[in-house]
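User: Let's play a game. I give you a shape written as tokens, and you guess the letters that built it. Ready? Here's round one.
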């Protein structure tokens, strides 16, 4: 079976705060390490009360310092918000502290709204410079040359795997052209997944960093003791999507018994389309769903995410998913 990894948004739930979210993140990362997940990624978002991973590199250091073997990284750093040199220095520092364990995924979106993007001092139009910024960033990780006027210290000559993230054909094209691994955001924007994967695999050019295409797909996996309980837990994520679309992002809400009473018919269609790549249920249901997803799309790795309100239930969901992975591995 292909490797499983985890994407954590460091959720801040109603009645909690960021400090508790960070404790939960480290606890979940330690559990993921024991369960054999390959990597643990955190994502950059800004001005979202329910997501505490805005200072992504800082949180990556916290998680890497509390674990010992699992890869830890960004899924991703939104490069339009940052100068490439600063990103190289931050991840060169992390890779120096935790050699062989740090990943850097790069995204083109600002990860926030326009007023916040302006507050970050890097504007929306900087996304147009994304390919140039990626090349500049990759250059800072190369060994420094004599007379080089600007170098990343630390960073130069340090091995930091760089991924490109995307939810459209743009990222797939760039990842293929640069010979980089590619992670598709199918867990919340699956529409272009099949076309992007096909393009990436068809046009991939081997590079010093990667000899053959390597694609990871995001997948919502919410597992519980029964299908009904898993569907109830999943209403937390469904509500969060609706709240965001209504322009009212807030703390992560508890699950509800009747999601039909919460959304309008158009909102239901929107959420079901956005979260189409979701496997929700008890262990056997999750096994069948993951097996079918992998058979259809043939990813090289799965990046699982579960926006579950109660931390204990979230832990259990990833425990069930790891057990499913082991069952599928044994069957193969």
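Assistant: Ready! My guess for every position:
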């Amino acid at each position: 079976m292909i490797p499983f990894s985890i994407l954590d948004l460091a959720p801040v739930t109603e009645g909690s705060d960021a400090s508790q979210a960070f404790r939960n993140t480290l606890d979940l990362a330690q559990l993921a390490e024991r369960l054999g997940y390959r990597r643990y990624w955190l994502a950059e978002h800004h001005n979202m009360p329910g997501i505490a991973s805005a200072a992504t590199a800082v949180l990556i250091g916290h998680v890497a310092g509390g674990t010992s073997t699992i890869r830890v990284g960004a899924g991703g750093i939104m490069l339009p918000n940052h100068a490439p040199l600063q990103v190289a220095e931050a991840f060169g520092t992390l890779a120096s502290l935790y050699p062989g364990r740090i990943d850097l995924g790069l995204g083109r979106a600002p990860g926030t709204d326009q007023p916040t993007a302006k507050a970050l001092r890097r504007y929306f139009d900087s996304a147009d410079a994304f390919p140039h910024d990626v090349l500049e960033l990759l250059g800072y990780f190369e060994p420094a040359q004599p007379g080089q006027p600007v170098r990343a210290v630390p960073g130069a000559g340090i091995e930091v795997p760089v991924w490109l993230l995307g939810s459209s054909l743009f990222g797939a094209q760039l990842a293929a052209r640069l010979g980089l691994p590619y992670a598709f955001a199918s867990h919340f924007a699956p529409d272009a997944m099949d076309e992007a994967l096909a393009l990436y695999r068809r046009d991939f050019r081997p590079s010093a960093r990667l000899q053959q295409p390597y694609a990871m797909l995001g997948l919502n996996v919410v597992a519980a003791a029964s299908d009904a309980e898993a569907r109830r837990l999943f209403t937390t994520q469904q509500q969060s999507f609706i709240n965001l679309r209504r322009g009212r992002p807030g703390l992560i809400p508890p699950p509800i018994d009747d999601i039909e009473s919460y959304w309008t018919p158009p909102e239901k269609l929107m959420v079901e389309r956005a979260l189409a790549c979701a496997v929700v249920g008890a262990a056997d249901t999750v096994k069948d769903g993951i097996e079918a997803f992998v058979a259809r799309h043939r990813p090289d790795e799965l990046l699982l995410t579960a926006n579950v309100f109660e931390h204990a239930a979230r832990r259990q969901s990833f425990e069930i998913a790891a057990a499913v992975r082991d069952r599928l591995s044994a069957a193969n």
